[in-house]
């Protein structure tokens, strides 16, 4: 029976992933309907904590965007990338990583992809190389950024003091080393542009040749007056979230009593509560101090993307957690011995789930409780957190598609066999090295 139920789970996720957007969440709810009506499964609690984390963090990021803060950050990043064009294979991904790590969203990479493509083309460096690893960098920044929904959800799931700091101490250095390995792996990927038959054929077009030989011009960006102030408020919010999650004694303690969604039995505030209060307060201050209208925040592209993220997490995580809870004993018997002897095999399971879910926070919410049920220590689960970035495996995520479309040379592409696409090498190398380094760091930290 479990195989039939698993088939329903996988089919719903596959269909939802193919249809994109809120379809993933809606197909998850359809899967729930089948689980309850056909298999008589007892529904678990919906992932309300993760949904509220997404709403809080994305709303704050949208306020930053509406106030011009993201444009200002992109302006700074663009200057860094253009300053050393010959080193773009290394400079671009680490600039993207730092920017996304701070902002807590991978979608900011859209603004930098044209710059990376243009600079690399004008210096005759195959754009596929910096574009591929830069897209991967935007994803891996989410597993370590204190302002990303994925990291916040992971910290809330672990339910240990200082979880946020533990994640940052392991995942940030591990992912940086992983990205360095990824950049090295694509350093000579593909043919040089002068030897690429596709590019040379395009160069026969006079208009295309003229565009390729034109000097790269820095994009003129109009920075709003309150942009720097918005960035400062956002930075303070990051510091408060990190401090509040890492040092609980700095947070007001309520009287002991019956625990609820916001407060633990000992009176300490839950991580979800800290994130919600701090981030949304920061959004309010950005709106008031920079005189950004509420209407502008609602119109921001990040705010519009929030509905899709919330619905997706709601449906697919609820379906997955219901399946896991219903078959907990069977799964423990099947995987318990394997993960006890070979803990790294659980990272493969997380990776495979991530390829289907297209969301780090959804994958973490679905898989990390299973890892704790199987007896895997918290440090090991943190080291495996980067495995949730595996949605590069199937080349359908918007950032991958955008990079392919932006590269006018045609070097960044989806291969004949689909999986042999431009991002596969960088993604696999970065994921593997990040997890291995994370496990080694756990031993170093003791």
TrEMBL record:
Primary localisation category: membrane
Cellular compartments per GO CC: plasma membrane
One Pfam family this sequence matches: DcuA_DcuB
Membrane topology: Multi-pass membrane protein
Molecular function terms, GO-annotated: C4-dicarboxylate transmembrane transporter activity
InterPro entries for this protein: Anaer_Dcu_memb_transpt
TM region(s), chain numbering: 6-39, 51-75, 87-110, 166-187, 230-251, 271-290, 302-321, 341-358, 370-388, 423-441
Keywords, comma-separated and alphabetical: Cell inner membrane, Cell membrane, Membrane, Transmembrane, Transmembrane helix, Transport
Top-rank taxon: Bacteria
Location within or outside the cell: Cell inner membrane
Coiled coil: none
Family, as annotated: Belongs to the DcuA/DcuB transporter (TC 2.A.13.1) family.
Protein name (record): C4-dicarboxylate ABC transporter
Organism the protein comes from: Flavihumibacter solisilvae
């Amino acid at each position: 029976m479990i195989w039939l139920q698993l088939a329903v789970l996988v089919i719903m996720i596959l269909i939802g992933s193919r249809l994109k957007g809120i379809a993933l969440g809606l197909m998850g709810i359809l899967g729930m309907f089948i689980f309850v009506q056909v298999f008589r499964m007892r529904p678990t609690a919906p992932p309300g904590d993760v949904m509220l984390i997404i709403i809080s963090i994305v709303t704050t990021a949208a306020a930053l965007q509406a106030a011009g803060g993201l444009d200002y950050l992109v302006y700074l990043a663009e200057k860094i990338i253009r300053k050393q064009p010959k080193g773009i294979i290394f400079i671009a991904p680490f600039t993207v990583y730092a920017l996304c790590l701070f902002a807590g969203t991978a979608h900011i990479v859209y603004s930098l992809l044209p710059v990376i493509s243009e600079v690399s083309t004008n210096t005759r460096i195959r754009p596929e190389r910096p574009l591929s690893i830069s897209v991967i960098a935007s994803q891996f920044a989410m597993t370590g950024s204190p302002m990303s929904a994925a990291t916040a959800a992971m910290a809330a799931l672990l339910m240990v003091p200082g979880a946020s700091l533990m994640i940052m101490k392991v995942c940030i250095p591990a992912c940086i080393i992983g990205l360095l390995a990824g950049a090295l792996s694509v350093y000579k990927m593909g043919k040089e542009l002068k030897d690429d038959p596709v590019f040379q054929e395009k160069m026969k077009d006079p208009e295309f040749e003229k565009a390729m030989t034109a000097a790269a011009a820095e994009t003129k960006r109009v920075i709003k007056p309150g942009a720097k102030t918005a960035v400062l408020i956002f930075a303070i919010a990051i510091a408060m979230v990190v401090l509040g999650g890492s040092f609980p004694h700095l947070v007001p303690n309520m009287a002991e009593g019956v625990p609820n969604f916001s407060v633990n039995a000992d009176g300490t505030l839950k991580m979800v509560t800290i994130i919600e209060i701090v981030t949304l307060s920061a959004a309010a201050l950005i709106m008031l101090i920079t005189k950004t209208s509420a209407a502008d925040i609602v119109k921001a592209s990040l705010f519009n993307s929030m509905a899709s993220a919330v619905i997706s997490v709601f449906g697919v995580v609820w379906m997955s957690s219901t399946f896991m809870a219903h078959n907990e004993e069977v799964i423990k018997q099947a995987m318990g011995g394997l993960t006890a002897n070979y803990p790294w095999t659980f990272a493969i399971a997380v990776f495979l789930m991530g390829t289907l879910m297209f969301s780090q926070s959804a994958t973490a919410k679905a898989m990390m409780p299973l890892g704790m049920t199987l007896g895997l220590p918290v440090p090991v689960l943190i080291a495996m957190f980067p495995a949730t970035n595996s949605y590069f495996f199937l080349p359908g995520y918007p950032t991958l598609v955008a990079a392919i479309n932006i590269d006018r040379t045609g070097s960044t592409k989806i291969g004949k066999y689909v999986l042999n696409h431009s991002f596969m090498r960088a993604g696999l190398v970065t994921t593997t090295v990040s997890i291995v380094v994370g496990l080694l760091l756990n031993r170093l930290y003791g």
